[in-house]
Specification:
The chain is an alpha+beta fold. It folds into two domains: about 1-30; about 35-240, Hypothetical protein, similar to alpha- acetolactate decarboxylase, domain 2 (60s Ribosomal Protein L30, Chain: A), CATH 3.30.1330.80. It has five helices and 14 strands. It starts with a helix and ends in a 7-residue tail after the last strand. InterPro entries: Acetolactate_a_deCO2ase.
Length: about 250
Amino acid sequence: MYTSSIKLHFLFFVMIIAILIIPAYSDIISDSPVMYQASTYAMVESGNYSEVITVDEMKSFGNFGVGGFKDLDGELTQINGDIYQIKHDGSVLKPEGDTGICFANTITFDPEYLINLNETMNEDTLLANIHDSFPDENVIYAFRIDGEFPEITVRSVPPQEEPYPSLSEVIEDQSVFHLQNISGTVSGFWFPEWMQGVNYAGFHTHFITDARDAGGHVLDMTTENASVSIQPIYTFTMILPDKKED
């Protein structure tokens, strides 16, 4: 009888906790912006660089993101709603609205917390500090780094023609740019290990200068006086390539 009473009290306690937690978690999800993703990393890795969405469509989905263009024609960085195309020759363009995009992540950026990293840090230390701030390693994070970059190494890739080679083959012909003593913004996402293939598990970062005259996919960086804005992501919508017209 005493044991049954304990069980009943425990069950009642669990039910109360569930009633309190479930609506709270539901509120978190409903209040959080949705991340939109065009294509998957596995598709791009295998050599699918066909158009999935356009620049105008990406802008309608979010104001902050990263990606690549149709035919893998340069690196894509989205900051404050503007989309930039960093070509393999290092030039930076603002592409037309009907320009095709083969892969992208974008979100209406609404960071939940900010960390200031005033020390000079190499990339490993910087990313470790950002990772250590994550409250939950099972969700996605968008983050923005604004600051000074004593050194940053970025890359872009040349446009491809069908039949497309794999991403690893394209990267063999990448253009690498070593930038020094500049200020700018890193747009980035972090994906948990269980999402490998859907996206790239770990950090994916792109950079553009404050002058909007250089940037690319980040290979290495050193920062100082960095301000990092971070947004957890609980929901996302995936847009897959449509082959019906092929």
